Amino acid sequence: MKLLKKTGLDKTEQKILNGERLTKEDGLTLFESNEIARIGALADYVRREKCGDIVFYNVNCHVNLTNICTSRCKFCAFGRDDGERGAYAMTVEEVLNLIREAMKDPNMSGLHIVSGLHPTWTFEDYLNFLHVIKENFPSLYIKGFTGVEITHFAKISGKSVEEVLKELKAAGLRAIAGGGAEILSDRVRNLLCPKKATAAEWLNVARTAHRLGIKTNASMLYGHIETLEERVDHLLTLRELQDETGGFQTFICFPFLPKNTALEKEIKQTSMWDDLRTMAISRLMLDNFKNIKAYWVMLTVPVAQVALGFGANDIDGTVHREKIIHDAGATSPTALAEDEIIKIIKDAGRIPAAVDCNFNILRTA
User: Fold this and answer.
1) 3-state SS string over the chain?
2) Tens digits of per-residue pLDDT, 307-317?
3) In terms of pTM, does the model score above 0.90?
């Protein structure tokens, strides 16, 4: 790849082209640079070398069991107190009806289950949802719960994280969602989400799951009170654990959407510029992650499509019904048809591949 105009990025660029691992200093250099086209080109080069031209997606349905939550994080527009207007807790039959509706799509292959930390539900209540879903829809792949939720299950049940994970796996869980990582900084978490899993607890869930053979995803919620150094540290922490276990499947960049949150008056939404550079830098720093997701629900469809040229090779899925992000003012659709996703990928000059929650290819288009 030909070097571009001589700038402060030259040293970092040469390391990338040589296949060398980037340091914290390199990450800060990238974030402090305004050469977004150059950074994007480097990320696209690495993506092409590592992944080729296939872009992964899945035909999936989001199931958010409840928005009643004890955590009430400052960056969240989804959570409610029990009895508050808009609060809900789904019944088993309501969940089954939602999935039956989604199953009208003959290619429906998986569920994405994440929820609030309900103050009175027991771990057995959550397990029962999985048992019933597996019994009624045995063909569906279930990706569910975050490190935060699993830490909560351990605390309310008195079981270890390992015991909780083994029971979830036996009940039908095939992979763990990547949310809840936010920024893996005690400073940030103490200010924004002090009532939920710490950074160490989130990492412990991932490490334990990987040891048990359960693949997980990882994420970063950026664009709120974190510093650029904390973004880089977050990426390095994930990279270190991936070196140790190899159990992360994909990394998701979540731009913070402030509408209807406690931070709405203090923080403006990230720009497309920030979203694309963060996507690209994630690809460059996370050299041991094969997949980087452009989550169209938060980025919007046009930005997610452009992100396929900034290091991303995963665009999530059809979603069917998304609530959490749209409560925060997301302007993207609540679902996309499979043919729409295929067109988005093909228009970007890439090859669409439908996968299950563990990235096994089901078909290409």
Assistant:
1) CCCCCCCCCHHHHHHHHCCCCCCHHHHHHHHHCCCHHHHHHHHHHHHHHHHCCEEEEECEEEECCECECCCCCCCCCCCECCCCCCCCECCHHHHHHHHHHHCCCCCCCEEEECCCCCCCCCHHHHHHHHHHHHHHCCCCEEEECCHHHHHHHHHHHCCCHHHHHHHHHHCCEEEECCCCCCCCCHHHHHHHCCCCCCHHHHHHHHHHHHHCCCEEEEEEEECCCCCHHHHHHHHHHHHHHHHHHCCEEEEEEEECCCCCCCCCCCCCCCCHHHHHHHHHHHHHHCCCCCEEECCHHHHCHHHHHHHCCCCCCEEEECCCCCCCCHHHCCCCCCCCCHHHHHHHHHHCCCEEEEECCCCCEEEEC
2) 999 999 999 99
3) yes
